[in-house]
Amino acid sequence: MQGWAADRAIWVRLVMMLVLLGYLAMVWESHIIPLPVSLEFPLALIGWLFLPVLFVWARLLRIDTGRGVRWPLKQMFRPWVLTATFGALAAITLFLAIGWDAPSFCQGPVPVNCVKGYQWSIDNGHYFHTTPNGTHAEISRQAYIQELGFDLRSAATFGVYAMCLAWLAAAALRGPIRKRG
Predict the structure, then answer these.
(1) What pTM value is reported for the model?
(2) Non-local CB neighbours of 77 within 8 Å, separated by 6+ positions
(3) CA contacts within 13 A on the Cβ side of 163
(4) Which is nearest to 138 in space by CA: 146, 125, 130, 128?
């Protein structure tokens, strides 16, 4: 067994915790202030970048990640406290992203990605959205924050789900447990 200082998976997971805290901050702020539309793509992509990076890093370390390798379940969640903290932060982030302050046109118990393809803009302190059919309408600041914020939070949800998968994939950096024989 490796100690915390030498365990690559722990360090990767600590970085993931910091990124998750960044997601949480962005999700929280999207409920309060108008954020730029340009954040949508990075929020969706950053979480997914962990998966190929982890795969490439494992390959560079010559760790077998093939189909025949067995990964003990407890190794994927070790250390438990860090995993429980990550899980709680991910749950809070996901709740704030999709379960809180959804626009009025969102229906259903989990209104993921229900924004109707609006394009948002700000002009001289006035807020607008343009519908897919081209109708350009002025909306209130609160409606702008709610609609655009929900769009950004939907993108963040996509990234947080990927980080949950990457959390499990980080166990590969420890390598499979070899049988003694």
Answers:
(1) 0.77
(2) 83
(3) 32
(4) 128
Q: Which of 51, 56, 52, 78 is nearest to 164 (CA)?
A: 51
Q: What is the pLDDT of residues 112-137, one digit of tens each?
A: 556 567 788 888 888 888 887 888 88
* CA proximity to 144, closest of 157, 129, 155: 129
- Grouping H, G, I as helix, E, B as strand and the rest as coil, residue 167 is helix
Residue 90 structure tokens: 């991910």
pLDDT tens digits, 19-59: 999 999 999 998 888 888 888 899 889 989 888 888 887 77
**Angle of helix 80-98 versus helix 8-29 axis, rounded to 10:** 20
Residue type, 141: R
| Token reading at 52 | 């190929």
